[in-house]
Design a protein that fits this description.
Layout: H1 2-28, H2 35-54, H3 63-85, H4 93-124, H5 130-149, H6 159-182
């Protein structure tokens, strides 16, 4: 059963990250014609396009895509509970709250992996990689304020490291705050 849980969790998490990437790409006004951006749009368009006809955006926020990501988080948690218990659990407010927390946690994980990818590409790339350009466009709004306080030293940019530490700290704080309320359900997030 652990193997199936792993597969379900992995497939849901990967697709949720792609959906969140679409929101993030729009928010950061990243290059739409970049091959990586095109992949994200094409992977999410079949469901997002009909949702956009029903749900309008709020300013720069694509609410239809955000709702889709939330529904995916809820579906992941619900499916894992069904697989674990062998039946359909009764829905209460905690399912909706856990889905929201999972969405926020997944967004933080996505930022973490984008920063790692950006750091690795900065070591090996010559600066003409299309994925590196998009990763820079996505992460610069988070890294730039840190660079104002801690400028690069000797060609080494420590701003990404400080952002890693801040993300891990937030992850632990959220875990410490929510574990008393959700106990053993925290592993699903």
């Amino acid at each position: 059963m652990n193997a199936i849980n792993f597969l379900v969790t992995t497939f849901f998490d990967l697709y949720i990250m792609v959906v969140l990437l679409r929101i993030w790409l729009q928010w950061a006004q990243a290059d739409f014609y970049n091959p990586f951006s095109q992949f994200v749009v094409k992977a999410t368009q079949p469901i997002v396009k009909p949702l956009r006809r029903i749900i309008p955006p709020l300013g720069k926020l694509d609410t239809a895509t955000l709702l889709f990501a939330y529904i995916l988080c809820f579906s992941k948690f619900f499916m894992l509970q069904v697989m674990q218990s062998g039946g359909f659990p009764t829905l209460d407010l905690s399912y909706f709250l856990i889905a929201l927390i999972a969405l926020i946690k997944t967004a933080g994980g996505l930022l973490f992996w984008a920063l790692i990818l950006r750091a690795i590409l900065s070591w090996v790339s010559q600066g003409n990689n299309p994925i590196e350009l998009v990763m820079s466009q996505l992460t610069d709004p988070f890294v730039a304020p840190i660079r104002k306080v801690i400028p690069p030293m000797g060609g080494l940019d420590l701003s990404i490291l400080f952002l890693f530490i801040a993300l891990q700290f937030l992850n632990f704080v959220i875990g410490d705050l929510l574990t008393p309320f959700f106990g053993n359900l925290w592993f699903v997030l």
